[in-house]
Design goal:
α4 packs antiparallel against α5, α9 packs antiparallel against α11 and α10 packs across α11. The chain is α/β, with parallel strands linked by helices and about 400 residues long. Strands 9, 10, 11, 12 and 13 form a five-stranded mixed beta sheet that branches.
Length: about 400
């Protein structure tokens, strides 16, 4: 709360306070006090209402008073300019020129403590939004980081950052309690730096209802994609995509892709969970679901082939774990391609080839030992080594 001291101060009392200011001025400012002595005075009075401001008729704590204008704090802070006759004494007691990051953080904590789980009034909310903007700017000047600070939510409450979501999945936002959603006028970048969660990355979907659709066009698209995914050419192409981004050939089992199915659905309902298994939404519309037991990619039906293809590419990519690719466009392209065209398509997309791509490996040749003997395998291997050595000027 704003400092309780004093709405009406009798003139004799003000004069006695001024006498104290004059004493401090003579002893600690004009009297040549040491830095240690000045620091002791500041430490003693910094948190106490001891700065008299005639304009507000209040005593203010030095930590809540600044020489520069601070109207963005509303009436919870005050500006006492350097034109004040005792400004040097006020500075001695702890008044600062302008707010630093820590001053903004103290303001946030003050409101969070006062309001607890209640919504802010309009005046404090307006001040808070301005403070968030100033805090972000001040952070860019001072550097450093902020972790798990109180953040304003869509229901005008203040909650710790690691308990709220940045609404980067707009299709989910309306199904989530507004006390869990970042206020639209607070910077998402600031909230993320403070530890706020992503509504698209930090939630888990669990299907509760999958209703298959009946549509000739969508079913034909899914059958075409299933044929591509089941092919050995697709497995090789997928390895190329992973190699292109990760710089090393993936050690991953892709044999399961040979038997997966792709099925269009009329409806997919999912529950949303926090990563700690706390449910945050029930039976909301979903877009895809992979049944690991039956190995079926369920994709919500759409009139747009591209939308369904995008969902399938995203769903398949999620199954790759640490090998998930960043660029989904090439992945969607090879899902939609005829298997025999996948290799050339990736070449046109300038996707790196695997280390043995285009060459017959000694393992492949060994498997054909009824046609090629071991001497032939060795000869081809030596030719390949000599060719690569010449290309890279190895001695």
């Amino acid at each position: 709360m704003i400092e309780a001291a004093t709405s009406e101060i009798e003139k004799p009392e003000i004069e006695s306070v001024k006498a104290i200011y004059r004493y401090l001025e003579e002893k600690f400012i004009k009297g040549g006090a040491t830095d240690q002595e000045k620091q002791q005075i500041k430490h003693r009075f910094f948190h106490r209402p001891c700065l008299w401001d005639k304009a507000t008729a209040k005593f203010w704590k030095p930590k809540h008073a600044f020489f520069e204008p601070v109207s963005f704090f509303g009436n919870r802070r005050v500006s006492i300019p350097t034109s004040h006759p005792y400004w040097e004494v006020y500075q001695l007691l702890g008044q600062n020129h302008s707010p630093l990051v820590q001053d903004y953080l103290c303001f946030l904590q003050e409101l969070a403590t006062e309001y607890k789980d209640l919504p802010l009034n309009e005046e404090d909310k307006a001040s808070l939004i301005r403070v968030f903007n100033r805090l972000e700017a001040q952070l860019s000047l001072e550097g450093g980081s902020i972790k798990n600070i109180p953040i304003l939510t869509a229901n005008d409450g203040l909650y710790l950052a690691n308990k709220i979501f940045i609404p980067d999945a707009s299709w989910r936002k309306d199904y989530i309690d507004s006390s869990l959603i970042l206020h639209p006028r607070v910077s998402a970048k600031l909230a993320k730096n403070a530890g706020a969660l992503s509504l698209i990355k930090d939630v888990i979907e669990k299907p509760v209802d999958v209703t298959k659709g009946i549509s000739i066009a969508q079913d034909e698209w899914c059958q075409t994609w299933q044929k591509a995914i089941n092919s050995p050419e697709f497995q090789t192409g997928l390895k190329r995509l992973i190699f292109h981004e990760s710089d090393s050939e993936p050690i991953i089992d892709m044999m399961w892709l040979k038997t997966v199915k792709v099925s269009p659905c009329r409806q997919i309902k999912v529950d949303l969970f926090w990563k700690d298994e706390t449910k945050i939404a029930s039976a909301i519309p979903g877009t895809y679901y992979f049944d690991e037991f039956s190995r079926i990619f369920h994709i919500i039906s759409s009139k747009s082939k591209f939308i369904m293809l995008s969902y399938l590419a995203e769903s398949l990519n999620n199954q790759l774990g640490e090998y998930a690719v960043q660029n989904l466009l090439p992945l969607a392209s090879i899902i939609d391609a005829e298997p025999q065209n996948i290799n050339n398509l990736l070449n046109e997309l300038r996707i790196r080839v695997l280390l043995d791509d285009g060459e017959k490996s000694s393992e492949e040749l060994t498997q054909k030992s009824d046609i090629i003997d071991h001497d032939e395998v060795i000869r081809l291997f030596v030719e390949r080594v000599e060719r690569e050595s010449a290309q890279w000027n190895y001695p």
